[in-house]
Write a structure and sequence with these properties.
mainly alpha, 11 helices, flat
């Protein structure tokens, strides 16, 4: 219901913070009732229509020679634009899932008193984050396929968007993987092992693009099996 209501997300986040802050206090019931009533009103009320924007008049520009790497930058910008505009809700949900996985892994590490033997927990969390972000490849692939009616007439190589989609998804997942790598380093894991785990799970994320697109019906099963086997191989190499 909130997928196309980007303005309602800050209110949902503020309500979650309010309910969490009042948890276990005398204001718990009142805060939950207030947040529930505000959320119901936000979903029932119709959004205000936006005023039409003024279209600027086109003005002539001097032709300039194309900069080196301009085509590559434009292709990467297309992949990022699909993620941030057309797939914004899916990207936000994936980031929240990755944040929850990372927070759970850090919580377990703290529960075990930051023992270096809890390094496998960090490895499992990194593999789960790579598996979560691999689902973004399907939306990117569908968006590029839908634009082939226009871009198919241009002199471009087949599947030219593949490496730029990999770069865009990897850029979105890298902060969470880097945070877990820093956590592994902080608990006493060897720097070489922590960096090897980061490189392994970054490669896993890129490798999961193929099982995500090879089948529409069995994509989840194939990616889960591939991620499990890859993580088991990482365990065997690093532990």
């Amino acid at each position: 219901m909130l997928e196309r209501r980007a303005g309602a997300w800050p209110g949902v986040a503020a309500g979650a913070v309010l309910a969490g802050a009042a948890f276990g206090t005398r204001l718990d019931l009142a805060a939950n009732l207030l947040v529930g009533a505000a959320a119901a009103c936000a979903l029932v009320m119709q959004p205000r229509p936006r005023a039409p924007r003024r279209i600027p008049r086109p003005h002539a520009r001097r032709a300039s020679p194309p900069a080196p790497g301009g085509r590559r930058g434009a292709a990467l910008q297309m992949s990022l634009a699909v993620l941030l505009r057309e797939r914004r809700g899916e990207l936000l949900a994936t980031c929240l899932t990755a944040a929850a996985i990372a927070a759970a892994a850090v919580g377990l590490v703290m529960l075990f008193e930051r023992d270096a033997r809890s390094f496998p927990t960090v490895l499992l969390a990194e593999g789960a984050i790579a598996l979560a972000f691999s689902g973004l490849f399907r939306g990117l692939h569908r968006a590029h396929r839908a634009s082939m009616g226009y871009l198919g007439a241009l002199p471009l190589a087949a599947a030219w968007w593949r490496r730029y989609d990999l770069a865009a998804v990897l850029a979105a997942a890298l902060p969470f993987l880097a945070a877990l790598t820093a956590c592994a380093w902080a608990i006493g894991a060897a720097p070489a092992h922590a960096l090897a785990a980061l490189a392994s799970n970054a490669a896993l994320l890129c490798a999961l693009r193929t099982p995500q697109l090879i089948s529409d019906r069995h994509a989840v099963v194939l990616t889960t099996i591939a991620a499990g086997c890859w993580t088991a191989g990482t365990f065997a190499c690093l532990l």
